[in-house]
Amino acid sequence: MKKLFISLLLSLIILLCLLPVTVSAEPLNKPINPKDIKEMTFVHFAKPDKPPGQAKKDKPEPEPEGTYELIGTKINGNATYYVNTSGAPDGSITEINASFDAWEEEDAAGEDLFTNGGTTPISGRKYDGQNTISWARIAPKSTIAIATFWYYSDGDPGTFDEIVEFDIVFNAFLNWGIDPDGEGPTPLTDAFDIRNIGTHEVGHIVGLGDLYDNDNSYLTMYGYGSIGETQKISLEAGDKAGAQAIYNP
Ligand SMILES: [Zn+2]
Questions:
Q1: How many domains does the chain fold into?
Q2: Is the separation of the CB atoms in 205 and 169 below 8 Å?
Q3: How many helices (H) does the chain have, and how many strands (E)?
């Protein structure tokens, strides 16, 4: 009898010791382990005279492209970005803000995804705790801009992975300008329009991939850009449908 009592008492003690562990389950906001963070980069090129990888006669025609492509990542909540205007023309902050705003429209993402946090001395693409937009020299010079983001992958292909940081860099080797009204009639003849390229780059942060079919050249997410172009400033149906598919499925 005494033995039974002792063993019951021991069991109780063991149970009590285990109890706090069971109760204090893992917190929901568990810190992200740096090794779980993945990086993805999109490079925006000037359109080459001859597009690379053109289909050869003996190769089967590739599947036709849709009007949007989902990367599988998204902004969760609201992300604050900072602009480094070093090397940028006057008025560039207004243009960059407009690039972000375009995606928040009711018929696009329809969500308040981005906030301008002001200026920053930080530039380039680095996982450093700040979302930055900056100008830096990028080789080769056919590179117009680069968008890089870091995201937390939960390993579930059925859900969007959450972007935890992003940086956009415009190539400082190139001329940058601001089209007076975004549509001509005096388009930039020697410079890339900031808002035009910016809206495309923000599209990657929103979660959309590049499209390269000539049929899609009128879309914001068309992968090539050119001097004086302003076509990407306004989202087209395909761009909006892509944003809707992510934020209002
Ligand atoms: Zn792109």
A1: 1
A2: no
A3: 4, 10
Identify the CA nearest to 120 among candidates 65, 76, 80.
Answer: 80
143 C-alpha to ligand 1 centroid (Å): 11
Dist. CA 201 → ligand 1 center (Å): 6
- C-alpha distances out from residue 160 to 15, 149, 151, 163, 242, Å: 40, 14, 10, 9, 13
The domain containing residue 198 runs over which residues? Answer: 38-54+64-247
227 CA from centroid of ligand 1 (Å) = 16
Mind listing the pLDDT tens digit for each residue in 187-197?
788 999 999 99
User: What spacing in Å lies between the alpha carbon of 209 and ligand 1's midpoint?
Assistant: 7
Q: What is the pLDDT of residues 137-196, one digit of tens each?
A: 999 989 999 999 999 988 888 899 999 999 999 999 999 999 876 555 567 889 999 999
202 C-alpha to center of ligand 1: Å? 9
At 27 the pLDDT is: 46
What's the CATH code of the domain at 165? 3.40.390.10
CA dihedral 50, 56, 60, 65 (to 10 degrees): 0
Q: What's the rounded Cα separation, in Å, for the pair 188 and 75?
A: 32
Query: Using one digit for the tens of pLDDT, what is the confidence trace for 130-139?
Result: 999 999 999 9
Contact, 147 vs 50, CB < 8 A?
no
Predicted TM-score of the model (pTM): 0.82
